[in-house]
Design goal:
By secondary structure, the chain is an alpha/beta fold. The chain has 13 helices and 21 strands.
Length: about 450
């Protein structure tokens, strides 16, 4: 039988969502090709989650050295080598690039190195080559967005932060999202003087307000200078470094300005308009609950759709899209209880509704909170507090949200995400025996309701 198309599925972008969709589709019997113009693994593997977490680990050693004395250790002089860290990080990323390549080829997916653009609903162009497919999946992710200010070209984005030749001694981080907060902690932990500039009155919009305020307090304790309700006005060259002028009139000299002012869907120049694919005002591809675009045979997943811009969500969307295209039934992703973490210093993690969201949806809610000094710091002497919080619906006693700031927050909240997904109640939390002594046990021992706000 003559095949109508070159492939059953053509995927543009070999990031987390695109790779998962490609593999699942191939396992379901589809002929699949994926095009990637940069690096296998996308943002997460190359300039996102993985290298960022490796840098976070590196930045935490300064705390460990300082805390050791309280436990009887005498630590000699220490010296940090930025070049060694970046070289070792690059080796690990190269290994992961190879892992992704093997995952695709083992599944029978054809990998094409190059930029793919849409010519119509079934045709893509890669250079002079034309390839047709029954289905097309767009999974090109996002790209850093820089503010339009004088001197913006003197700054870097998070992409370049992973490849700096030297460790900067003074850093200005502009932006109050995941990326800005995490890099402020990384550079501070590695010894730099850090100022974080954010246009709002508190960073990490969308997280529970108690966690946001607690993190601001902890970052100030660590010496990060926070400038809220402030914008970056301009950047000028100043000797070997730069001078930043803020809207509050302050000028700051630094070796580096990192712009972490958001990311935009990477849709420019893809030919989406020619294929009839609708986008919103921010350039994100508009999709339905099955990740189908306005064109029936074209799907989109991950950050390019600007729904929940998290790697595990993109992976889930990729699988669901492949199942919808080639499986026995349409599949959709449940976004209700998606856990997330910010690897700040200290880290925060959350799952479910914030207190504000819960009150907006349910009216009255019960709040349980516990703030305490971790056992470790009773000897280390570090002035750091852990905060845990539960948001509960009063009538059913169903736990609507779990929030934490403190060591291992991401590891702890991941387990609680299972409980929320199962509809656990506060009574079931209370009936669970804790592991002692741990911080995590506090989530099953909170009995007193916090005062109503």
């Amino acid at each position: 039988m003559v095949q109508k198309y070159d492939y059953d599925l053509f995927v543009i972008g070999a990031g987390s969502g695109g790779v998962r969709a490609s593999r699942v589709a191939a396992q379901l019997g589809a002929r699949v090709a994926v095009a990637e113009e940069r690096y296998l693994g996308g943002t997460c593997v190359n300039v996102g989650c993985i290298p960022k977490k490796l840098l976070v680990y590196a930045s935490e050693f300064s705390d460990a050295f300082a805390d050791a004395a309280g436990f009887g250790w005498t630590i000699g002089a220490s010296r940090f080598d930025w070049g060694a860290l970046i070289a070792n990080k690059d080796k690990e990323i190269a290994r992961l690039n190879g892992v992704y390549e093997r995952l695709l080829t083992t599944a029978g997916v054809t990998i094409i190195d190059g930029r793919a653009t849409l010519l119509d609903a079934h045709t893509v162009a890669i250079g002079s080559e034309r390839i047709t497919a029954r289905y097309i999946l767009v999974a090109v992710g996002g790209w850093p967005a820089a503010p339009r200010i004088p001197g913006a070209e003197l700054a870097i984005s998070s992409n370049e932060a992973f490849h700096l030749h030297a460790m900067p001694e003074r850093v200005i981080v502009v932006g109050g999202g995941y990326i800005g907060v995490e890099f402020a902690g990384i550079f501070r932990g590695l010894g730099a003087e850090v100022t974080l500039v954010h246009r709002g009155d508190l960073f990490l919009r969308g997280f529970d307000d108690d966690l946001r305020a607690a993190l601001a307090d902890e970052m100030r304790k660590r010496g990060v200078a926070l400038r809220f309700n402030t914008l970056l006005e301009r950047i000028e060259k100043r000797g070997a470094g730069v001078r930043a002028t803020l809207t509050n009139g302050e000028t700051i000299d630094a070796a580096l300005v990192l712009l972490a002012t958001g990311r935009r869907p990477n849709t420019h120049g893809l030919g989406l308009e020619a294929a009839g694919v609708k986008m919103d005002g921010a350039g994100a591809i508009v999709v339905d609950r099955h990740s189908r675009t306005s064109v029936e045979n074209i799907f989109a997943v991950g950050d390019v759709t600007n729904r929940r811009n998290l790697t595990p969500v993109a992976i889930a969307e990729g699988r669901a899209a492949a199942e919808t295209m080639f499986g026995k039934r349409a599949m959709a992703v449940d976004y209700e209880n998606v856990p997330s973490a910010v690897f700040s210093h200290p880290p925060i993690a959350t799952v479910g509704l914030t207190e504000m969201e819960a009150r907006a949806r349910f009216g009255a809610v019960d709040i349980y909170k516990s703030s305490f000094r971790p056992l470790k710091h009773t000897l280390s002497g570090r002035d750091e507090r852990t905060l845990m919080k539960l948001v509960v619906e009063p009538k059913s006693e169903r736990v609507l949200g779990c929030h934490m700031i403190g060591a291992d927050a991401g590891e702890i909240i991941q387990g609680l995400a299972v409980a929320l997904q199962c509809g656990a109640t506060k009574r079931q939390f209370d009936a669970t025996i804790g592991i002692h002594p741990t911080a995590a046990e506090e989530f099953v021992t909170m009995r007193e309701k916090a005062a109503s706000q």
